[in-house]
Design a protein that fits this description.
Phosphatidylinositol Transfer Protein Sec14p, 9 helices, 5 strands, CRAL/TRIO_N_dom_sf, CRAL-TRIO domain-containing protein, PI_Transfer_CRAL-TRIO, phosphatidylinositol transfer activity, CRAL/TRIO_N_dom
Length: 232
């Protein structure tokens, strides 16, 4: 786990302060020793994936893998299982990003080590929101145990009520992460289309967010894909 690229990510996250980076990576190693993320498999989290609340979806225009989240499809509200599902997905998507070779002649020898998270808030409400503790731990895991992995977070079409949630969670977002968050208002069609088009290929975005991928969730197809991927 702790290779040169990993060490550089922790150093960048702490602005090249060696003592702070060391403290950060030790905390992550302690967390990984308890969480054992590398041991999680699809069958461990399949129940959480039934409704399609979180899934991989191709790459963006910079070659970064895309993780789609649909909080309105929350199906368990189970804090432990939600966190396990998040960690499984991150390990899965980043394992590929860290080790997949690009075609010869490409500018980079390795696929981009950062990912893009696309969150569709269109049908989100307080009724289907996960507990605040889950939201805070999700943020903590991304910032503290997967540093420098987030390239961009796109919050698509958050409703007015989202402002309440945002006012509570935003103080826990570090400035660097905050600068990577983009909001897209579906009602402002031209601006929304321009923003989404600048980041994503239509083949990586669901049709209800301006892409061409059917937004209807097919659990069986995705499960087959992920089990095959686990086998690698």
């Amino acid at each position: 786990y702790v290779d040169d690229a990993c060490l550089c990510r922790y150093l960048r996250a702490r602005k090249w302060n060696v003592d702070k980076a060391l403290k950060m990576i030790i905390a992550s190693l302690q967390w990984r020793a308890t969480m054992k993320p590398e041991a999680l498999t699809w069958d461990d989290i399949a129940d959480e994936a039934l409704t399609g609340k979180q899934y991989r979806s191709g790459r963006d225009k910079r070659g970064r893998r895309v993780l789609v989240m649909r909080p309105d499809r929350e199906n368990s509200y189970n804090h432990v299982e939600n966190i396990k599902f998040l960690v499984y997905t991150l390990e899965n998507i980043l394992w590929k990003s860290s080790r997949e070779r690009e075609p010869r002649g490409s500018k980079a020898d390795l696929a981009p080590e950062q990912i893009v998270i696309l969150i569709n808030f269109t049908d989100w409400s307080r009724k289907n929101a996960v507990p605040m503790a889950t939201a805070r731990e999700t943020l903590s895991i991304l910032q503290n145990h997967y540093p420098e992995r987030l390239g961009l977070a796109v919050c698509f079409n958050p409703p007015t009520i989202f402002r309440v949630f945002w006012s509570i969670i935003s103080p826990f977002i570090d400035p660097k992460t905050y600068s990577k968050i983009v909001f897209v208002n579906k009602k402002k069609k031209e601006k929304a289309a321009a923003t989404m088009g600048a980041v994503f290929h239509s083949s990586a975005v669901d049709d209800d967010m301006g892409g061409v991928v059917p937004s209807a969730w097919n659990f069986d197809v995705y499960a087959t894909h992920m089990r095959d991927y686990d086998a690698k």
